[in-house]
Specification:
This protein starts with 8 loop residues before the first helix and ends in a 5-residue tail after the last helix. The chain has 8 helices and 5 strands. The chain is about 40% helix and about 20% strand. With about 190 residues, it is of the alpha+beta class. The chain folds into 2 domains: about 100 residues, PAS domain (Beta-Lactamase, 2-Layer Sandwich); about 55 residues, Arc Repressor Mutant, subunit A (Orthogonal Bundle), CATH 1.10.10.10. About 25% of the residues are buried.
Length: about 190
Amino acid sequence: MNAPQSIDYESIFQHAPVGMCISENRVILDSNEALASMFGYTRAQLEGQSFLMLYPTQDEFQRTGDRIIPIMNAKGRYSDERIMRRANQELFWCHVTGHSMIPKQPLGAGIWTFEDVSEKRPVTAELTPREREIAALLVEGKTSKLIARQIDLSPRTVEMHRAKLMRKFSAATSSELVHKLVGLQL
């Protein structure tokens, strides 16, 4: 009978095919090489840094944190697709998933994964931070009314931003806009 082999979790973390990090209070405690490479940093440059350095703007960092808290409190995990920023200032779409390690402490100790989805969803138009936020929520299939409720705007304001997005992406319909946002050309 063979003795069970021990599992080297550190090696698994470091060689995972997606970017991973361990954080506490939105500060990166440790990351793997895939995360550092995706964002254009070294692991040492990320260690001890706020997630803020990975966001296009401080406002987007703040609003995303505000959006995450109630969902993490309710479910203990969070997932979305959003535009992030590499060290060279390039913007790209990223699928982000996080799991709180301590119930009811959504921004406390957590495990986060990041997957670069820019090949499927290139950033093709110059967008404002609010347009990026609304675009990410549209891609999730949310209506203007739900988006308005979630980010504390009026539905009319969300519709105004959606109309601007439609012009920027040369989309004739909301459905065409979503397809273009996800990188599918009609």
